[in-house]
From TrEMBL:
Keywords: Membrane, Transmembrane, Transmembrane helix. The keyword Ubl conjugation does not apply. GO terms for biological process: acrosome assembly. The keyword Transmembrane applies. The chain crosses the membrane at residues 138-162. It comes from Circaetus pectoralis. InterPro entries: SPACA1. The gene is Spaca1. This is SACA1 protein. GO terms for cellular component: acrosomal membrane.
Length: 164
């Protein structure tokens, strides 16, 4: 296949991360290139690209909605990039890149539900808030120490000039 894939680790990641990238590698063998990363991702919508190399129009793109224990639903979208808005439940999409009727690459995306994204965002905000407070305290300490040292140096210089 063409393109790249991210090799993810799902346990043993640093901090509280549930998944972390181990490495990014080029897909050369099988057409199933794994899971992709959206181009843009907001609380409302997600933009997902198929795997392709320029020129984009040399390929045909088949987007599918994957449903657990059922046949995949083929979507009418045939472009290299698809934008979907979040629903009340998570949905997995797959894009097959085809050339001359053969599948040469395939990539999957999970679009999380609005509620899951809000939960993740609030968790990120909570952990970010505690980090921000610690960082602010360190910055205030450094600033105060710098001011005290500067004032001390100025007084020392004045003292040396007066007694010279």
């Amino acid at each position: 296949g063409i393109g790249i894939r991210e090799v993810l680790l799902t346990s043993g990641c640093p901090g509280t991360e549930a998944k972390c990238i181990v490495r990014v590698e080029e897909c050369r063998g099988p057409v199933d290139c794994g899971w992709g990363t959206p181009i843009s991702e907001g609380l409302a919508c997600v933009k997902m690209p198929c795997i392709y190399i320029p020129p984009e129009n040399r390929f045909k793109y088949v987007w599918k909605m994957l449903i657990l224990n059922k046949t995949a639903y083929i979507l009418p979208n045939d472009s290299a990039i698809m934008e979907v808005c979040r629903d009340t439940h998570s949905v997995t999409f797959q894009c097959e890149t085809q050339e001359n009727g053969n599948i040469i690459a395939s990539v999957k995306y999970t679009v999380y539900a609005k509620t899951e994204m809000q939960t993740k965002k609030s968790r990120r905000t909570e952990t970010g808030q505690s980090r921000r407070t610690t960082t602010d305290a360190i910055l205030v300490f450094c600033l105060a120490t710098g001011i005290i040292v500067t004032v001390g140096v100025i007084f020392a210089m004045i003292f040396m000039i007066l007694h010279w």
